[in-house]
Amino acid sequence: MTIEVKRRASTAQSTLSEWFVNGVFECYGIEDVVRPAGAAKVFGKTAIPAGTYQVIISFSPRFQKQLPLLLNVPGFAGVRIHPGNYATDTEGCLLPGTGAGKDMVTNSRVAFDKLFKKIEAATKKERVLLTIR
Q1: Is-above-0.90 flag for pTM?
Q2: pLDDT in single tens digits along all 133 residues of the chain
Q3: Which residues have C-beta within 8 Å of that of residue 77, sequence separation ≥ 6?
């Protein structure tokens, strides 16, 4: 399974994106601000680097439940996909939503639940890769 995150609009508060699963539009997303190359990482306010990451399902001590986890993200630890509507709801994680507005996504839990079912099923039979562009 492939998940492609195409970053679109960035503001001083957030980065919005469109997400595709196996080439088909799935949802919108929000994350922290993408910093210019060479800029210092700001803890809890910097988006992860563009690249391709394997996704697994594992227990999150912070959220106390199973969530998707991105592996081997340079300079980051514990990067997950989880519900949230604003960049303030994340510290580097990716947040899905059914709609997008200025510095927000909508219906994040609905989008997350749908995506989680797909990721969970896929991880049982194949490798799941997420690519951020």
Answers
A1: yes
A2: 999 999 998 899 999 999 999 999 999 999 999 988 778 888 888 999 999 999 999 999 999 999 999 999 999 999 999 999 999 999 899 999 999 999 999 999 999 999 999 999 999 999 999 999 9
A3: none
